[in-house]
Design goal:
The chain contains seven helices and seven strands, in the order αββαβαβαβαβαβα. The chain is α/β, with parallel strands linked by helices.
Amino acid sequence: MLYRVARGIVRFVLFRWFRITVEGIHHLPEDGPAILVSNHVNYLDPLVMGVVFERPLHFMAKAELFEFRPLGWLLRRLYAFPVRRGEADRGAIRHALKVLADGHVLAMFPEGTRSHTGVLQDFQRGATMLALRSGAPVVPMVLLGAADALAGGRKVPRRVPLTVRIGPPLRFENGHGGPAVTAARDRLRAAMAALAPHGAHCESRPPTGSPND
């Protein structure tokens, strides 16, 4: 109930502040487990993801956010759960696998942290490890324009166009060992880079020094 109310409020605000275009929404399965992955540049990313998709999203969020009890209480009721970064957090892995086993959508940022340049960073292996262990499809997406909205350290975003571009689901079925996870991770990053208009550069403008400047 709280998720639905919060989503409605945030959706009302975002769709009136930004001009949001969504491409490929049909790629997210209407039911059953799925892992939705996106690039990550700032706080707009999870907000836009949450309002674009009708199905509730279960986000992994850094454990530090849950240390302030009122915020932790709220995040848990919005289906977020903590993960300790920089280590194999077995509790978070078990929770993520249960989310998928129960037929829900797990939302992740495979870079592991924000990109301050708009360029896709190296991916962590968590998303593809969970995909291999659960058999759930991975749906790649990129959010374009969020970096422009908060450029220059702005706190209040500029009213810029935002584009959500979603690609076809990927399935990884070639084993569970380290090489299989690494190969799947590289395939996922390539799929997300292909969704960006300037390769791995996930801003609405081409990077400085490109032939399109």
